[in-house]
Specification:
The chain has 15 helices and five strands. It is mainly alpha-helical and 356 residues long. Strand 2, helix 4 and strand 3 form a beta-alpha-beta unit. Helix 4 runs parallel beside helix 5, helix 6 packs parallel to helix 7 and helix 9 crosses helix 10. It is globular. The N and C termini lie far apart (73 Å).
Length: 356
């Protein structure tokens, strides 16, 4: 007791202030302990007013996750955001979340950062993403995921057309994992067809605070940086550029939900095809990029839909390169523009990036 008195005598806080701070902490701890049961009770009552569940750092384990997600799996809620960062679950808990993602039609944001889910948990999430059609943001940062988990995510994301942001910062990713992410969005292994089948919805793999690869792999650091640069180039010039549809629609009647969803799907398909066409143009014109790229850019509103039409109808789209190559009027038109305004050449310069 004497030591405590001496401590207060030499500190800037009084004993009454110390007691008040301690009381406030006890009240906060009591509130936190009742927060999880309150969420579970309200979800079991099919409370549709709950749209966001934030249980970051509250000691959520796998058992609590099962209780929390049971009413969500039954379709009794309208939860759109689920935040579970800094908790106590691993791969088994990730599997519980995966079951929710596999058929839920409301969740748009899920954050599992700073949990020990590992590659096994990431694989469970990846399988769910193949079936999910609504999730837009997924945070798996600092989850101890290695290259095996990243490869599975990259493979599954080729079947997902709605996820835009996947945070993989702080995981154990080497150049092999980064290469799988690049192949996910720009796969040239099968020529134009594999490019068309790549993922066209992803915009980013991290939030910009840290690289997605692990700096603890010194033998692959240079390779990682080159691959990350290529990945960023594809995302910026194609996926991000056409991430928003060129036209929007509004619905005035509440009875038009099915019509609205079909319009959204049509808009997403249109956006995906525009991104695919952009990648295919870059791939086909890589050897003659300086001659053709600027004039293709100027005509994109007319030529891109035609290219997509050829892709859908005929499949043998290598003919597209021949058609474009044998269109000398493109070069003539570009030269006419340059003659009329010499500043166009300097203002429209596009930087090359290493796409294979």
């Amino acid at each position: 007791m004497g030591n405590i008195a001496i401590a207060f005598a030499t500190s800037t806080i009084s004993f009454s202030e110390f007691v008040e701070v301690k009381r406030q902490k006890q009240l906060e701890n009591k509130r936190v302990r009742t927060l999880i049961p309150t969420y579970i009770a309200r979800l079991n009552r099919s409370d549709e007013t709950i749209t966001t569940i934030n249980l970051n750092g509250l000691g959520v384990d796998t058992n609590i996750l099962r209780l929390l997600t049971a009413p969500i799996n039954r379709g009794q809620t309208c939860v759109t955001e689920l935040h579970l960062e800094h908790n106590w679950f691993g791969s088994e808990g990730a599997a519980v979340v995966a079951r929710v993602l596999s058929h839920n039609i409301h969740l748009k944001i899920v954050s599992l950062a700073h949990n020990h889910i590992g590659s096994i948990g990431a694989m469970a999430i990846a399988n769910a993403l193949e079936q999910n059609t609504v999730l837009q943001r997924l945070n798996l940062g600092y989850c101890e995921i290695d290259d095996d988990g990243v490869k599975k995510l990259a493979t599954s994301l080729k079947k997902n057309h709605t996820l835009k942001y996947l945070n993989l910062e702080g995981n154990f990713v080497s150049s092999e994992g980064v290469r799988s992410l690049l192949n996910c969005v720009y796969d040239t292994s099968g020529g134009i067809q594999s490019l068309f089948d790549s993922n066209h919805s992803l915009i980013s793999y991290h939030n910009g605070q840290r690289t997605i690869y692990n700096p603890n792999f010194p033998e692959t650091t240079v390779s990682n940086r080159q691959l990350v640069f290529q990945l960023a180039s594809v995302l910026a010039s194609c996926n991000f550029r056409y991430s928003q549809p060129r036209w929007t629609t509004t619905t005035t009647s509440s009875s038009s939900s099915s019509s609205s969803s079909s319009l959204v799907k049509k808009s997403n398909d249109q956006t995906s095809r525009r991104v695919a066409a952009c990648k295919i143009l870059q791939y086909c014109l890589k050897e003659h990029r300086n001659d053709y790229w600027k004039c293709i850019e100027k005509l994109e509103e007319k030529i891109v839909p035609r290219i997509v039409g050829w892709l859908v109808r005929y499949g043998g789209v290598e003919v597209m390169y021949i058609v474009l190559r044998d269109m000398p009027w493109l070069l003539e038109k570009n030269q006419e523009d340059l003659n009329q305004n010499p500043l166009i050449e300097s203002s429209d310069e596009t930087s090359d990036f290493p796409l294979a």
